[in-house]
Amino acid sequence: MTERTARRTRSTSESTVEVVVDLDGTGRSDIDTSVPFFDHMLTAFAKHSLTDLTVRATGDTHIDAHHTVEDISIVLGQAIREALGDKAGISRYGDAMVPLDEALAQAVVDISGRPFLVHDGEPAGFEFHLIGGHFTGSLVRHVFEAITFNAGLTVHVRVIGGRDPHHIAEAEFKAFARAFRQAKALDPLVEGIPSTKGAL
């Protein structure tokens, strides 16, 4: 079996990013984004998707975390797309519902080659809340947008309930991770590309 790994970098006037992924890992991670709450979310993504993940990033976080978080997510999406290769033998679809105390989130992933994100259910005002000091709630959607569009995924993320912004965000990331874990898994019953078109 070909190794499903990738290393991608991106450097702009706003950030410098390096990402290494192994889709057939055990969930090990080595994350330093200079945005502590995002480190926490990426560590959870790696652990629950069984993806080995290394992220090194610096950026203009003295202005805002937005540039660095978005650029990391772009590069992570690109690395996932590269590591998936031709997608032969994958399960393709995954879905998960994950609680975190009072919060509950659902995610569905299709490794479709067609970027599309549906993201809803976050409570009013969530986007303005500062989580961990300087990670605004609005960045959660930005992360999913950047990963989805750069990895070529169709993703639905829905917050079913929740009160604490930290819990809501973490439930979303963990649900996405668990759904992605199912979708990227190699299925011994699948022959070739799991699409009637013959390509994803």
Automatic annotation (TrEMBL):
Which SUPFAM superfamilies does the record associate with it? Ribosomal protein S5 domain 2-like
UniProt keyword annotations, A-Z: Amino-acid biosynthesis, Cytoplasm, Histidine biosynthesis, Lyase
Which Pfam family, any one, appears in the UniProt record?
A: IGPD
State the compartments where it is located: Cytoplasm
Q: Which residues form the signal peptide?
A: none
Protein EC: 4.2.1.19
Q: What reaction does this enzyme carry out catalytically?
A: D-erythro-1-(imidazol-4-yl)glycerol 3-phosphate = 3-(imidazol-4-yl)-2-oxopropyl phosphate + H2O
Q: Which domain of life is it from?
A: Bacteria
Q: Please give the InterPro entries that the UniProt record associates with this protein.
A: IGPD_sf, ImidazoleglycerolP_deHydtase, ImidazoleglycerP_deHydtase_CS, Ribosomal_Su5_D2-typ_SF
Q: In which pathway does it act?
A: Amino-acid biosynthesis; L-histidine biosynthesis; L-histidine from 5-phospho-alpha-D-ribose 1-diphosphate: step 6/9
* PANTHER family named among the record's database cross-references: IMIDAZOLEGLYCEROL-PHOSPHATE DEHYDRATASE, IMIDAZOLEGLYCEROL-PHOSPHATE DEHYDRATASE HIS7
The similarity annotation says: Belongs to the imidazoleglycerol-phosphate dehydratase family.
Name listed for the protein in its UniProt record: Imidazoleglycerol-phosphate dehydratase
Source organism (scientific name): Microbacterium commune
